[in-house]
Structure formats: structure tokens, C-alpha cells
Amino acid sequence: MRKSQHVPSRSLAGPPWFRTVAGLAAAALLLAGLLSAAARAGGQPVPEGDPFRGRGIFGEKGCNRCHSVWGHGGTLGPDIAVAVAGKTWDELVGDFWNHTPRMIDEGEQRGYPWPTLEPEQMADLLSYLYYLRLFDEPGDPARGADAYTRLLCADCHTLGGSGGRVSVPLDRFGAHPSPVPLAQAMWNAGPRMQQEQVRQRNPIPQFTGREMADLQAYIRAEGRRRGRDVELQPLPNPDRGAEVYRNKGCGTCHDRASRQAPDITRSALSKTVSEITGLLWNHSYAMGAEMTARGVQFPHFEGNELSDLIAHLFFRGYRGADGDPKRGAAVFASKGCSACHTRSAGSAPDLSAVLQRTDRASLAAAMWNHAPQMHRLMAEKAPFWPKFEPGEMGNLVAYLRSLARPSGVSKGSE
Length: 414
Known about the structure:
Structural class: mainly alpha
Order of helices and strands: EHHEEHHHHEEHHHHHHHHHHHHEH
Mean pLDDT: 79
Radius of gyration: 26 Å
Number of strands: 6
Number of domains: 2
Strand content: under 5%
Helix content: 40-55%
Distance between the termini: 43 Å
Low-confidence stretches: 1-45, 407-414
Shape: globular
């Protein structure tokens, strides 16, 4: 990815580096104005967002004029479900910023107004874009057949009338496009299944990548069932999943503070449903043995509990890793912000004095809403649009947060 995008440059006295800094300073002044207004407004930080509200905002703001979702919608821009694949909050914001000049130019040519977003709307929209990646693309039946053979599924299960009779037939799971019902049944029967594997001296099956989706596709293709109707599950809900996480006691071992089991947030980061279900199964044998040793009951899932839990785990990775304020300071300098936004520079507000509300949604909305004005000034006064590489936005946010002063604290009172 290129670090800069050239835009038309108009005359401004001084050498190239001066024009660059001047342009960045003008753009930064606009951003500081909005951040200052947010600081005066005060209030509580904006929550992480609601993906279901975000879906409505995606349509209301006209995003689907240019962007499609899984192939449905506009074709001017990339399919948004593909473009956001595996991105955390900060990476999504960075991509928004990097893509802004082209979006502005294309929108102006077509007479589309620039859609402004309140911080709450920004949080909802970004959560919706992240939520899209929770759903898998269809698996591959041919790869699923290979997985079915490698994992020795036919030793115990029948499918399409052939296979072992040790456990239940798998045909009924073919009605589901998603692998979650199969994964939930496997989890609930896990201790018994694994005991049988040990008895037969077979290795405990371990999934890699998207094999659960491929296995599901194979079962759909080969299974016998009445009719070909599809059974769809309700949309997975991360809030309900958080309740499942608490009620099943997952945090007792998996929260970072306990350090008794792998950090489940890191494990699920940027993973899809099929990948998370595979990871859960891979972990279940060791987990069951540890819980048995402690006299703790192995958790059992009902209804859509596993689907909701996976949504919760998926969204725990949404925030990504915390940024590094020291590296953020380097980003602040390299993008030209430090030329104006420091106490000694004096040509623009000192961000340490105005950044009272530094939640991510407010910062992202500030950058987005002022982008057209910043783009115009940059076109006049600077030869490039600064771009963020992966990780830089998170580090910058961490640095800006480190500058923020508590409400009511002034420079003179320190």
C-alpha cells in the first residue's frame, strides 16, 4: 500500500516541506476545532456500538450506493464485507481515512452529499462492518470430504447411509448453512466422543482454518434428508453471548487476570465462525480434563447459546490490542500533527488541553465529518494525503488519550 496519495497542488510560497507542513497544519486545525467542541460537550464515552442499528445507518447514509455487502449493492467501491475482513476498530478507522480522498471525489462527481456521523452512529456503523465478517463464505464440499476422511468421522457416524453406528447420524445437520449447530452438538457430546476416540486409540480430531465450514458443506452435499429446505438460525447476538460467557463461568479461567487458560480474546481475533468453532473444539479435550480434575461441570449449550457466545468472542477481538503511546507520539510527529498541536508550537490548540472526550467513536467521527474540508485544504496547500499503515491508528489514539486532561483541570492548576 502506498503511504501517500497525490492530489492536485496549487501555488504556495516556500519549499516542498513547508507546503506539506502548512497543509497538514490547516487540516489539523479543523480537526482540533471539532475535538474541542466534543471536549466542551463532555459526557460519557460512546459504547462500542450496536451492529443491528449500524445496518440501518449503512442504508440511511447511502453507503450502499457505492458499496455492496456480499455482492448486493453498489459496485463503484469494493464489496465492504471483503474490504473490512479481519480488521479491528482502529484498522477500520485507518482504512476509512486512507480511502477518504477517493470517496470524496467520486461522491462530488455524482452529486452525493457527504454523510456526517454522530459518534454513536460511527460506533454503530463500524460494529456493523465488523459484524459482517462473523459470517463465513460457503465451505468447499471437496475439502470437506478430505476433512471428513482425515478426522475419521465415518468410524463413528453415518452420512448418506454409510459409516459407523457408534454415534448419531450426521444427515440432519445438512439443513443448516452454518456449522454452528454441528459444532454445538459436538461440544455437548465432546467428553463422550473423546472417550470413544481414546478407547479406539484414535487421535483426538483437531480442526485447522475453515475446516468446520468445509465439513458442513460436505454434510449438506452428501446427507440424506427430507426436502432441501434450509434452516436458518436467528442472528447471533454479542450481548446475549456476553451473558452466556458469564453464566457458563468462562471468565474464571479465560479472562486475562486469571491467567489459567489461553487468552480467548487473542485466540478469536479476526477469526470467522467456522474458525472459532474449530478452536473451541480443539480446546475442549484439555478443558474437559482440567474441569474434571477440579470437580467443575463441563458446560452444556442449548438453543442459540453457542452462536451468541461466538458472536461475543468475535467482538472481544473488535477492539484489538491496546496501542502504544510512545509509538503514537512518533506517528503524531511523522504525520505532521506535532508541527502545530503542541504547547510550544502555538499555531493550533494544544490537544492535551482540549481532548477531554477521547473515546474512539468521537475521534473517528471527528476525522470523518471534517474530511471534506481537510481534503480541500490539502489539495490547495499540500502535495499528499497522509495515510495510516496497520497499527498506526491504534498507537495514535493511545497517544492522544495519554494527552487528555481530566475535566476541570487546566494548565495552570497542574
